[in-house]
Specification:
The protein is an alpha/beta fold. The chain has a domain of 81 residues: Ribosomal Protein L13p, Chain: A (Alpha-Beta Complex), CATH 3.90.1180. It has 5 helices and 5 strands. It has a 3-stranded parallel β-sheet, covered by helices on one side. It is globular and about 60 Å long. The model has no long low-confidence stretch (mean pLDDT 94).
Length: 139
């Protein structure tokens, strides 16, 4: 009889992947990043184990958007108190803090559990081309 092999957390090797966002579509970058963080690009993917790689996104402020999303899309926050709903335009978030926008968009594609929170911690986003993770990246 053959059994399916499940990956164990202590046997997983993690790589560092650098993605340059210059002139790439924002949504395509995010879906690629989510699958890498989840570990779906590896042959030993296991849903209940964090088997993804570290992802470094550089030049985050140079991504493109398709359609009119940049002008029309809004993000909402609510603290739980009455009347505390706040609206943030996507264009303002992209200009002021693109790192937060990338993390917020990626979080929506990951599991809504502590496993998803640990996966999101492996995402590093930088608006420019400089990043402090050159020592971890091979090749």
């Amino acid at each position: 009889m053959k059994f399916t092999q499940m990956a164990k957390a202590n046997e997983i090797e993690r790589d560092w992947i650098v993605i340059d966002a210059t002139d790439k579509v924002f949504g395509r970058i995010i879906t690629e990043v989510a699958s890498i963080l989840r570990g779906k690009t590896k042959p030993y993917y296991t849903p209940h184990v964090d088997c993804g790689d570290y992802v470094v996104i550089i030049n985050a402020s140079k991504a493109k958007f398709s359609g009119t999303k940049l002008e029309t899309k809004n993000y909402y926050t609510h603290s739980g108190y009455f009347g505390s709903t706040k609206t943030h335009k996507m264009s303002d978030m992209f200009e002021n803090n693109p790192e937060k926008l990338y993390k917020l968009s990626t979080r929506g594609m990951l599991p809504k559990t502590t496993l998803g929170k640990n996966m999101l911690k492996k995402l590093k986003v930088y608006a420019g081309s400089e990043h402090p993770h050159t020592a971890q990246i091979k090749g």
